[in-house]
Specification:
The complex is a heterodimer of chains A (314) and B (537). With 314 residues, chain A is mainly alpha-helical. Chain A is 66% helix and 0% strand. In chain A, helix 4 crosses helix 8 and helix 8 crosses helix 10. Chain A is globular and about 80 Å long. The N terminus of chain A is likely disordered. Chain B is of the alpha/beta class. Helix content of chain B is 42%, strand content 15%. Chain B has 19 helices and 18 strands. In chain B, the strands form six sheets. Chain B has a five-stranded mixed beta sheet. In chain B, strand 16 and strand 17 form a beta hairpin. Classes of the chains: A mainly alpha (314), B alpha/beta (537). Chains A and B meet through helix 3 and helix 13 of A and helix 1, helix 4 and helix 17 of B.
């Protein structure tokens, strides 16, 4: 095992690649997957710049360059969906990190191993649930006539029922709650794994010095969690321009009155294709997403390099 | 970094390689060639065609002769279906092939296409060059122009002239509805009555239960009285729901039928000075009036609160006794429909505008894809079906004795569980069809009465001033995409009363103008004026 870690150098200073062949072979299926799924479709991007012409084949239509993009910028659509995508992602990253970390620290305080395992597994169940199922769970809560919130909660409190699926202003909160409820199990898992690696010696030493519970959390757990937090944030930043389609399309049940707060780029691209039936215009949406997403990753990486160089992606 | 660059380079090279492959592999497109070949290599005599006395076709010497000696051509025909494909499709296809092999030397391969994803299926098939010889577009108004502008379907004038004698005879004055820029891109199917009215449908069992006389409902006040009875007696019932096919919601039952010339929200009208103009429906006071009525119904609880995300179909709700009324866009002379044994009686308001528009006649359009190998064969098949009583009936009713049987009054009844139930008159000539026993029953049990009812309906129907006009949206495609995106946000909510029309309608109008509506209206007016000048002069 040791030999794999200390890399022997050749005379001219180059690494001996032969030793790494097994590792490359291991990576091959993954690389092939990425190539087929992420690189080959790049060729199709040209459709967004062409006129649709089936008789010549979709890749042979005349070039129209940016004509297919015009409808995006004709109105404020491009702005609304970009704003929604970025702001929701920022919100989810911040709230997700804080909530995930807090709950993980709390879970860590549960002394009965069995109880901790059970709670953790329960928290993880929603993560594996399909958004379509979640959307019906939400409907059971939010339905105007039969929903739990209107019929039980608001009625008991003596508040007028709300028509949830036509009132846009509540949806940022609803979507936040749903996304956190669904995603929390996974972030707890990440943070708990990290917390378990903290040696008990730290806590014992702190106890000897008379540190309170709160001080242990603040001065031991949080600093130890920092790399995990940064990793999670970077992973989310990389997906800044992608939204969870299921969350934004299924949960509001595609209700038109909510479009202003639920339309993200993915949702818009889907609706554009289904509604327009025009491949070129809907791929224009996709290209716009990729282009702005690329710029965003470069920018966020620059920022991370400034803050903590060893955590930057490149 | 160096390794990264080399990987990147190899990726780029591979991509270039792939693109080179696909460039060379795309087949050359020469749709006209086979047609010329067939007509020139034809020997004068075409064997036994037309000898059975079944459907005398192509006897006119002006039209082409079908080559019966070549190997039979397999024709892929796509037709719309909702839900599952009827199980006896292979039987129908076999029966159909007996006729087509005999008459036009063609083996037909029927392919059911899901109605709601039709555009996507056709465009996928066309881009992957899957075999596709004849496609049915429904509703054609949504598809034809887009398909024509993206060269998915081709102009068929020459094939129509050579092989379409029966088709021209049967479709006559409706042919222009399949034209764009003076070229015939599609052939309209021959519907029995072309104009359907919009209005309401009421569940007869529920009306009987609560002592409501549907026939006496004439005005909005009558409707509201009936709704109130239902609401009081069955508080949990959805009183009125709009079907999912109606993007606009319940409002289209109240607002008179308009000729939108293919653009949502636009209407063509005759101005006071007799000139023909276009305008936005949402700006009309009548629209606001109708929206307010709908809003009142929503607030009184007649329309379910979650109407913008309706999970169940309107017809299914009525069938199961969970809803009382629905909006109907397909009211015909019979004035009712029966769904799974539940009768829904139709009713129109006084302002209902019985009018035939271009879009009505475009409901079912047949087009020949540019990827079709033998457009002449596609046209021959359409022509054969148009002239054949056998094919027309086969496609709707199935096989006699197995799928349907004759009743005493000359009408037919489906045999339940027979394996073939197809509702749309897509293929052939509907005037050659049998009549449903139940339709005849509506007309007092006699076939002549029903025919008279339909004739009266046709007589009451006037043509839209823009009948035959097909708008070419290509120059304003951007604006149409933008305004449609805005429209999606508002129409369902406003049309079902889920939001206050007095604040939302002005907002919507403002936003569609921001999205370029004026440019669309101007362009449509320009094309309309040109079309009128050509028509009149």
């Amino acid at each position: 095992m040791d030999t794999a870690v200390t890399v022997p150098k050749k005379k001219n200073g180059k690494y001996n690649l032969r030793r790494f062949i097994p590792f490359y072979l291991m990576a091959l299926p993954g690389l092939a997957y990425i190539f087929i799924n992420n690189y080959m479709p790049l060729y199709g991007m040209q459709i967004a710049f062409r006129k649709l012409d089936y008789s010549a084949g979709v890749f042979n239509g005349p070039w129209v360059w940016f004509d297919n993009f015009k409808f995006l910028f004709q109105t404020q659509e491009a702005w609304v969906m970009t704003r929604n995508t970025v702001l929701y992602n920022l919100l989810f990253i911040i709230v997700g990190t804080v909530v995930g970390m807090t709950v993980a620290v709390l879970f860590n305080e549960i002394r009965t191993r069995l109880a901790q395992r059970i709670y953790q597994s329960l928290a993880l169940i929603p993560y594996f649930m399909s958004m379509v199922i979640v959307s019906y769970l939400c409907f059971a809560f939010l339905s105007s006539d039969t929903g739990f919130i209107n019929n039980t909660v608001l009625k008991t409190l003596g508040i007028e029922p709300v028509s949830w699926y036509t009132t846009a202003k509540h949806w940022p909160i609803i979507l936040l709650i749903v996304s956190q409820w669904k995603g929390i199990g996974f972030s707890i898992l990440m943070y708990t794994a990290r917390l378990l690696t903290i040696s008990d010696e730290y806590y014992e030493a702190a106890t000897l010095d008379g540190a309170s519970k709160w001080q242990k959390v603040w001065h031991i757990m949080l600093p130890m969690l920092k790399p995990a937090i940064i990793l999670m944030v970077i992973l989310s930043l990389g997906c800044m321009f992608y939204s969870d389609f299921g969350l934004f399309y299924q949960i509001p049940m595609n209700s038109g009155a909510l479009y202003q707060v639920t339309t993200t780029i993915d949702v818009y691209a889907f609706r554009a294709l289904m509604g327009l039936g025009d491949i070129t215009m809907s791929s224009a949406v996709g290209v716009y997403q990729s282009a702005v997403g690329f710029i965003l990753i470069i920018i966020s990486n620059l920022i991370i390099r400034k803050v903590s160089k060893e955590n930057a992606l490149f | 970094m160096k390794r990264f660059l080399s990987i990147l380079l190899s990726v780029l090279l591979l991509t270039a390689l792939l693109s080179a492959c696909s460039d060379t592999s795309s087949p050359s497109n020469t749709p006209n060639q086979p047609n010329n070949n067939t007509s020139s290599t034809n020997s004068g005599d075409s064997g036994q065609s037309g000898g059975d006395g079944n459907d005398p076709e192509n006897t006119d010497s002006n039209y082409g002769k079908i080559d019966m000696d070549e190997a039979p051509y397999t024709l892929n025909v796509c037709f719309p279906a909702v839900g599952s494909v009827p199980q006896d499709l292979p039987l129908i296809q076999e029966k159909l092939n007996e006729i087509t092999m005999r008459e036009i030397n063609v083996k037909v391969e029927l392919e059911a296409v899901a109605l709601f994803s039709m555009a996507n299926i056709y465009s996928l098939k066309a881009s992957s060059r899957e075999k596709m010889d004849l496609i049915c577009m429904m509703p054609g108004a949504n598809h034809m122009v887009n398909f024509a502008n993206s060269n998915l379907i081709q102009p068929v004038d020459s094939y129509l002239a050579e092989w379409g004698s029966e088709l021209i005879e049967v479709t006559k004055k409706y042919l222009p509805t399949g034209q764009l820029r003076g070229l015939q891109y599609a052939i309209p199917a021959n519907g029995r009555y072309r104009s359907m009215a919009t209005g309401f449908g009421f569940s007869v069992p529920l009306a009987d239960k609560h002592g409501i006389n549907i026939d006496s409902i004439k005005t909005i006040a009558d409707i509201e009285a009936a709704f109130e009875v239902i609401k009081t007696n069955e508080p949990d019932m959805k009183v009125i729901v709009a079907p999912e096919t109606a993007g606009g919601g319940v409002i289209y039952s109240l607002y008179p039928k308009v000729d939108s010339a293919g653009i949502n929200g636009v209407e063509v009208y005759t101005d006071t000075d007799g000139s023909i103009k276009v305008r936005l429906s949402a700006e009309q006071p009548e629209y606001m009036e109708a929206a307010k009525t709908i809003r009142r119904w929503f607030e009184k609880g007649y329309i379910p609160k979650d109407v913008t995300i309706m999970l169940d179909g309107a017809t299914a709700l009525i069938e199961n006794g969970a809803a009382f009324a629905t909006s109907v866009a397909s009211i015909g002379p019979a004035g009712r429909s029966i769904n799974n044994g539940v009768e829904i009686r139709h009713m129109m308001l006084d302002n209902a505008n019985l009018m035939t528009t271009t879009a009505d006649c475009q409901l079912i359009l047949w087009g020949i894809p540019t990827t079709a190998e033998r457009p002449d064969k596609s046209m021959q098949f359409l022509n054969l079906a148009a002239g054949s009583e056998e094919i027309s009936n086969l496609f709707v009713f199935g096989i006699e004795g197995k799928h349907y049987e004759f009743a005493d009054n000359g009408g037919v009844n489906r045999i339940s569980g027979g394996g073939w139930e197809y509702y749309w008159m897509v293929l052939g000539d509907s005037f050659k069809l049998h009549m449903f026993d139940s339709d005849i029953a509506v007309a007092g049990g006699s076939l002549p009465n029903l025919v008279a009812m339909e004739a009266a309906w046709e007589a009451d129907t006037k043509e839209s001033p823009a009948f035959g006009f097909v708008f070419d949206p290509e120059s304003v495609a951007t604006e149409i995409a933008s305004t449609n995106a805005v429209g999606q946000e508002y129409t369902t909510a406003i049309g079902n009363g889920a939001v206050d029309p007095e604040t939302e309608i002005p907002k919507m109008v403002q936003r569609v103008y921001d999205a370029g509506m004026q440019k669309i209206l101007d362009e449509m007016q320009r094309q309309l004026d040109e079309w009128l000048a050509r028509k009149n002069g």
